[in-house]
Amino acid sequence: MLAFNVKTTEPVPVEERLRRHVDTSRFPSGHAFLKDLQGWREKMRSQRFGTNGAEAVRDGQLRYYALATHAEHHFRTVDLKNEAKVVFRWYDTFSTRRFVDQPDWAFERASVLFNVAGALSYLATSQERGERGDPEQIKLACRYFQEASGVINELRKIASNASWLSFTPDMTDDFLEALSCIMLAQAQDCFYEIWRSLLTLILTRALAPAPGAKDAGLKLKAPLLQEAISSEWLAVVDWNRALFDGVQNYYAQRALFDGVQNYYAATARRT
């Protein structure tokens, strides 16, 4: 199963730069809000899975995302680039030397959502699965993967038609769509693991198309992504696609064979 890391960002003195743009007559708690915004941005910026844990990272990113959404509304008339001199710099999660600078709250929020999805993917892969896996943990992994896919789709809505969408490989629409497909395909894998002892459901799972693995493989063939993304990621996605193809073919043949046997048995009984 695949999980992905958080994007990193540089410090931004949002409290200092936006303080003079607070209209206390309309926003009495504006200065306290900016202090909270600055504090949570610093906390969000320093969070890592290894030191804080994926759950704390998810919660911290979501808390800052809510504050950034409010900031976008409260300071919607402020020209971040020319008036406030506020520019957000975020690095690509795979090609960590690549970065994008944007004076845009939407870019800030989209990048934070990317990290929320990353934390959810990490939580999902941390659950005990496999032969001795706890069914409840497998269900939890399934839920986390589904949530990660949903968060990525929400990110894509924010980023729709944005000029910065293709500046780093991890924020291209092709990659985001592939990532959403991968998370959803992995959720389907978890469902398969829960019900694998029931032949009927296995047949249903195997004979159904596996758009997640196939679609992700196609999207990741874009030259920019082939160059930037870890070869291990590409190999796992391709292996999953081949696995699903093999399982589908096996059970399709099994179902066909059983159907032929039943037909001849019924014919023999009638004669």
TrEMBL record:
One Pfam family here: BRO1
SMART domains documented for this protein: BRO1
Signal peptide: none
Every BRO1 domain range: 1-271
GO annotations of cellular component type: endosome
GO biological process, one term: protein transport to vacuole involved in ubiquitin-dependent protein catabolic process via the multivesicular body sorting pathway
Protein name (Swiss-Prot/TrEMBL): BRO1 domain-containing protein
Organism whose genome encodes this protein: Emiliania huxleyi (strain CCMP1516)
Upper taxonomic lineage: Eukaryota, Haptista, Haptophyta, Prymnesiophyceae, Isochrysidales
